[in-house]
Amino acid sequence: MSTRAGFVALIGEPNAGKSTLTNRMVGAKVSIVTHKVQTTRARIRGVALEGESQIVFVDTPGLFRPRRRLDRAMVAAAWGGAADADIIVLMVEAHRGITDGVETILEGLEEIGQGRRVALAINKIDKVKSEVLLALSEELNKRYSFERTFMISAEKGHGAKDLKEWLAAELPEGPWLYPEDQIADLPMRMIAAEMTREKLTLRLHQELPYQLTVETEAWEERKDGSARVDQMIYVMRDGHKGIVLGKKGETIKAVSKAAREELEEFLGRRVHLFLQVKVRPNWLEESERYSEMGLDFKDGNA
């Protein structure tokens, strides 16, 4: 039996379930999942195996109308991920239907989708009745000629296996792109930073969801098999620093504990995590911050 391998780009609006689906397909947590929109910043790739096929998922940032440099860089990364893929899967939320955002993506697909295979995955199917699903599927297929349509629940797993099997069979024949035991091609430092950022986002979802970023500054392997990880949390104002630290340092302690536990589970060994908070008013305009997130600073230009 010959092997197959290729890239699959998941595109859709923020919160469409792309990260959740990536994690389900890969069978491990490689992409951060929060209830806040626009949490995925870089094109995180998860590597999934199905039979003799290796499926490399490009989990793109959600496509939305960009207003500032970081937004523009994220949207450019999303379309770039789609343009580089062998197969594109558009994810649409069943209960939200064809929103203005979905309309915009359908327009973009007219150009990006040319010469590419594009499938449709209607997600969160447990939230609507079957007749609504069928009508939505019919309408979307009128707007764009999708190769296949899948009804799924990324969270509960319904329909995900059918989608995975179809992707595995449709990828081009060729050798695998990554070693068998590798599940993501992001550096471990970046995955660790994403884990901490997710915990901060969950904890501070009201106060400052997008006003901060996390970078892993140092990673030291210790003789006892554990790792020391030093991370810096950049915020834009002094007031934000106080919010991240919390009363008597409670917030940062809780975030550090949650991030450390998840990192230990991911690595299968002990981790000593040290977090610091630094005020950098202009971090959104600093090219190094974008490089750390795997984004192109130039893509943020108006």
Automatic annotation (TrEMBL):
Residue sites binding GTP per the record: 12-19, 59-63, 123-126
Ranges where the record places region G3: 59-62
Membrane topology: Peripheral membrane protein
Region (G4) location: 123-126
Gene3D superfamilies assigned: 3.30.300.20, P-loop containing nucleotide triphosphate hydrolases
Keyword Cytoplasm: yes
Keyword terms: Cell membrane, Cytoplasm, GTP-binding, Membrane, Nucleotide-binding, Ribosome biogenesis, RNA-binding, rRNA-binding
Ranges where the Era-type G domain occurs: 4-173
Region (G1): 12-19
Residues of the KH type-2 domain: 204-281
UniProt-annotated stretches for the region G2: 38-42
Entry superkingdom: Bacteria
Membrane-spanning intervals of the chain: none
G5: annotated span: 152-154
Record text on subunit structure and interactions: Monomer.
Biological function: An essential GTPase that binds both GDP and GTP, with rapid nucleotide exchange. Plays a role in 16S rRNA processing and 30S ribosomal subunit biogenesis and possibly also in cell cycle regulation and energy metabolism.
PANTHER family: GTPASE ERA, GTPASE ERA, MITOCHONDRIAL
Similarity comment: Belongs to the TRAFAC class TrmE-Era-EngA-EngB-Septin-like GTPase superfamily. Era GTPase family.
Protein name per its UniProtKB record: GTPase Era
Organism: Cognatishimia coralii
Native organism taxonomy: Bacteria, Pseudomonadati, Pseudomonadota, Alphaproteobacteria, Rhodobacterales
Gene this chain is encoded by: era
